[in-house]
Write a structure and sequence with these properties.
By secondary structure, the protein is an alpha/beta fold. It has helices spanning 3-8, 22-28, 38-43, 102-109, 119-130, 137-146, 149-156, 191-201, 217-225, 286-302, 325-333, 355-363, 383-405, and strands at residues 12-17, 30-33, 49-54, 59-66, 71-72, 85-91, 97-99, 116-117, 167-168, 207-210, 228-233, 242-243, 256-262, 303-313, 316-318, 321-323, 338-346, 371-378. The strands form 3 sheets. Strands 1, 2, 3, 4, 5, 6, 7 and 8 form an 8-stranded mixed β-sheet that branches. Residues 1-7 and 147-156 have low confidence and may be disordered. The protein binds S-adenosylmethionine.
Length: 406
């Protein structure tokens, strides 16, 4: 094979270890990481060049070669299950070489060890490990100048970042190269919300259920992330969506790893004419919350203890009247679940994002809806323990108050 053909397939990845995990990486010939870098593992293909960076000793070892694609739990016993996103490795050449002061050298090469390595970056490390003294920095600088930025960004920009705060904002409904749901569907869910929940609260192979699936965004996200997924709606828009009323799920108790629901927010959108569509009921009436609570009870029943329900909902301002739909939904949810957290999701693509609506909001002195709530709720591991815990916390609060007043 010609040299240029070989080089075009060259890809690399740097995996990190510490002084306590290095031995197991090298003896077991498996590199692993946790959920935070799951995406990185998914990008590894058999044959890719791999390097191991000990972040404590600041040494980089190489060169290794991936002997499997990146996967989940390839060696379940490795690191006692702490780093289940793994790749099996072999040696690229018999002798494993070392790069001293690795973080400084990589930074001088313009390489971040957290991302994937493109062809020129992989070549640079291979050549440095071959003979650090003879490494010629000149052509590297010239080649870096020639690399087009968008190509390199392409590798990383396929998936959204995992959110670390309670304020989530993403510019587009979808991401990556394949569509997630349909942005022609009124009320479609931004796919990055489901992506974040799936990454945080499930592992590959887990079962995710969306009882109100609309255009199927949850299904598309789960397919790409290697999760099993069952989706329902009163009016299915795709063959994979099963016709079903969310108030009665045809699933056994304690069988699901994550439920995601983006329910109607009241009767503001006409999804379809089906009589069981909860989106025909006004959010100003208690009936709306009573019907949603039936969906909550079913979600609770099918979820495994300790697993999570994500519920997306927005408030309503209609005909000069504000309805705190989010607070009311949370009140119902917290009868059955513990709250893990409340996320503020920025509303971007909506019909009121226009100059006319801006002028109306200022002229008539009201606010346009700028965010939705994402309630992250957990089915308690043991309902009794969860109740007891609440009691103890309350008693100690009472004691503190008494002490203060005495
Ligand atoms: C906000 S949309 C869901 C959007 C969806 N996540 C997506 O990305 O396309 C709400 C959906 O709830 C469905 N729905 C309303 N009442 C329902 C019920 N009782 N059972 C099942 N689905 C219902 C509607 O048909 C609608 O598709």
């Amino acid at each position: 094979m010609a040299e240029s053909q070989q080089l075009s397939a060259l890809r690399g990845h740097i995996f990190a270890c510490t002084k306590s995990t290095e031995k197991e990486c090298l003896e077991g010939m498996v590199f692993g990481t946790n959920k935070i870098y799951a995406e990185k593992i998914n990008r590894v293909k058999a044959g890719d060049k791999l390097f191991l960076l000990n972040v404590d000793s600041d040494k980089l070892y190489g060169t290794f070669q991936a002997t499997s694609d990146g996967g989940f739990n390839l060696v379940p016993e490795a690191w006692k299950g702490k780093y289940p996103y793994q790749v099996r490795v072999g040696r690229h050449k018999e002798e494993i070489k070392e790069m001293e002061n690795a973080k400084k050298v990589l930074s001088k090469m313009g390489i971040s060890w957290k991302g994937s390595l493109d062809e020129y970056q992989t070549k640079a490390i291979l050549s440095y490990l071959g003979d650090p003294q003879a490494f010629d920095w000149g052509p590297l600088a010239a080649e870096r100048g020639r690399v087009k930025k968008p190509e390199r960004a392409g590798l990383e920009s396929e998936k959204p970042r995992l959110e670390s705060t309670t304020h989530w904002d993403y510019p587009k409904q979808s991401y990556g190269t394949t569509p997630k749901g349909s942005n022609k569907y009124a009320g479609v869910t931004p796919a990055f919300i489901i992506y974040n929940l799936v990454q945080r609260y499930t592992d590959p192979g887990d079962l995710v259920v969306d009882p109100m699936a609309g255009s199927g965004t949850t299904l598309d996200v789960c397919k790409e992330e290697g999760r099993k997924c069952i989706v329902y709606d009163v009016v299915p828009t795709r063959p994979e969506i099963i016709q079903n009323d969310a108030r009665k799920l045809p699933l056994p108790d304690n069988s699901v790893d994550l439920v995601f629901i983006d329910s109607p927010y009241g009767d503001n959108i006409r999804y379809n004419e089906h009589p069981a569509n909860i989106g025909h009921i006004s959010a100003e009436s208690e009936e709306f919350y009573d019907e949603l609570e039936k969906v909550m009870v079913e979600s609770h029943r099918v979820l495994k203890p300790g697993k999570v329900l994500g519920w997306l909902i927005g408030d309503q301002w209609v005909k000069k009247k504000f309805t705190p739909v989010g607070f009311k939904v949370h009140e119902r949810l917290s009868k059955h679940f513990d709250t893990v957290d409340v996320i503020c999701v920025v509303r971007r693509s909506q019909s009121s994002n226009t100059g006319i609506w801006y002028n109306r909001a200022i002229r008539f002195n009201f606010y346009l809806r700028g965010f939705k709530y994402l309630f992250i709720m957990r089915k308690p591991l043991n309902e009794e323990i969860s109740q007891k815990k609440r009691k103890v916390a309350w008693k100690s609060y009472e004691r503190v108050k008494k002490r203060e007043s005495g």
